[in-house]
Design a protein that fits this description.
The protein is mainly alpha-helical. The chain has helices at 5-20, 34-38, 43-52, 55-65, 70-78. It has one domain (5-81).
């Protein structure tokens, strides 16, 4: 059943597995992959999306909507204090 906890847990689990290979945590642009996880997208739909939405659009959306992850904030704050 759509919206059941099993479906939501499965979706979140798939997102976390996908995201873990690209990030050290936090909500990142990989959040947009959820649409690809749940949808059946044909080549035509993917081509249209790639032609319609630019990388700058995605970057801007992520900056405005998601902000800086906690991991990135830690890196900025503590990056200069690393030995060596």
């Amino acid at each position: 059943m759509i919206g059941s906890t099993e479906v939501l847990e499965s979706l979140i689990g798939k997102y976390k597995r996908l995201q873990s290979s690209h990030s050290k945590g936090g909500m990142t642009a990989m959040l947009l992959s959820i649409g690809a996880i749940v949808g059946k997208l044909g080549a035509e739909t993917i081509q249209q999306a790639l032609e319609t939405i630019s990388t700058d659009d995605v970057t801007s959306w992520c900056k405005d909507t998601l902000g800086t992850t906690l991991q990135a904030q830690r890196k900025l704050a503590l990056g200069a204090t690393k030995p060596g």
